[in-house]
Specification:
Blueprint lengths: L16 E2 L4 H10 L4 E4 L5 H15 L3 E3 L21 E5 L12 E5 L8 H10 L5 E6 L7 H10 L3 E3 L19 H4 L7 E5 L4 H10 L3 E5 L4 E3 L4 H15 L4 E7 L7 H13 L3 E7 L14 E4 L3 H7 L7 E2 L1 H7 L15
Parallel strand pairs: 1-5, 2-3, 2-4, 4-5, 6-7, 6-8, 8-9, 11-12, 11-13, 13-14
Antiparallel strand pairs: 9-10
């Protein structure tokens, strides 16, 4: 890969992507000639962070700082305040978000995996008698498996459908915790979805976004997980809405992370609350943390940051915490059904 081109003054830097940590990355970072680098890794890779920092120092000959804050995705790269001396960031494990690029030049190292036997996965799908038309969705690490899996599914009598999402998604079939528009684009052409990856985080978001049965398979283990019980999750969210219906004082949470900042939405929600005779105040933070809300006199909160904060962590908050669509449900401006996922665009 050629070294990244220089960015004209005043423009947001391009976000080159690297499949692996190795000579290609080191050569591109050297070509960028940074004075200082900040390295960010997700929680699951912190064990390797300091070894990689040492390699970058040796290969590039530039000081490297390691960002200690937990990293959730490409939406929350190191801020200027966190790493004021660094003029280049290396973010491990995530793909760039095309419409939310950091102001600082950032190299995204996606950590693609070649693990997984598409024919074996197709046989598992066939033996489990899943619906015949399957939408295929994957985490970034397993995107390379999707095209060969689609072919393998055809060989056993299935159709694997891949959708292209909106401007927030870098690749077809890609899943983000806040955006499943690639799947939404194929919803009417499939009977169910198959998520390729580990854990339940993305399958839950996918099920809420598309209202179709969602199975998941871990390509490392070749194990098909039970479908997501969407109805029970929606019921829990509706109970949270019901608990906030009588709230008079609302805190409107806004994240300052580059990929989570939605101040226009927050101001619009504040206005909607006030038009309904409620009080509403904007609360700013980088990472939304329930401990920072303790002792405040609000009755409920609506988060314009990552929608998964309310959905996954909301039960741990002392006061009801809703997504923007749920907030409008609580105000009576949207019905409880159909449930609307808070998609970032």
């Amino acid at each position: 890969m050629d070294a990244p081109a220089a960015t004209p003054p005043g423009q947001v830097p391009a976000a080159p992507t690297f499949a692996t940590v190795g000579p290609e990355l080191f050569a591109a970072v050297r070509a960028a000639a940074p004075k200082r680098i900040v390295l960010q890794v997700p929680a699951g890779l912190v064990r390797d962070a300091h070894e990689l920092a040492a390699r970058l120092r040796t290969e590039v000959g530039t000081p490297v700082d390691v960002a200690a804050r937990a990293c959730f995705g490409a939406c929350d790269p190191p801020s200027r305040d966190e790493a004021p001396r660094a003029d280049l960031a290396v973010v491990l494990g995530h793909a760039p978000i095309p419409n939310a690029l950091p102001a600082r030049r950032t190299f995204f190292v996606e950590m693609r995996s070649d693990v997984g036997d598409p024919d074996a996965i197709a046989r598992v799908v066939r033996d489990a008698d899943l619906p015949r038309r399957l939408g295929l969705v994957a985490s970034v690490q397993h995107l390379d498996l999707v095209p060969t899996l689609a072919v393998a599914l055809e060989r056993v009598g299935y159709t694997g459908v891949v959708g292209r999402g909106d401007r927030r998604l870098a690749y077809p079939a890609q899943a983000l915790g806040c955006n499943y528009t690639g799947a939404e684009a194929t919803r009417d052409a499939v009977d169910a979805f198959l998520f390729v990856g580990s854990g339940r985080f993305h399958p839950i978001g996918l099920a809420l976004a598309v209202d179709r049965p969602v199975w998941s398979i871990d390509p490392f283990r070749g194990v098909l997980e039970a479908p997501i019980d969407r109805a029970s999750i929606v019921r829990r969210r509706q109970l949270a809405v019901a608990a906030a219906r009588d709230a008079r004082r609302w805190g409107v949470l806004v994240s300052t992370f580059v990929g989570q900042m939605r101040m226009p939405s927050a101001l619009a929600l504040q206005e909607r609350a006030r038009s309904r005779g409620r009080e509403a105040e904007i609360l700013l933070a980088d990472r939304i943390d329930g401990r920072d809300l303790e002792g405040r006199s609000f009755d409920a909160y609506v988060s314009t940051a990552c929608p998964r904060i309310a959905i996954d962590d909301g039960p741990n908050y002392a006061k009801p915490l809703l997504t923007p669509p749920e907030f409008l449900m609580a105000l009576g401006e949207l019905p409880l059904e159909p449930y609307r996922f808070d998609t970032f665009h």
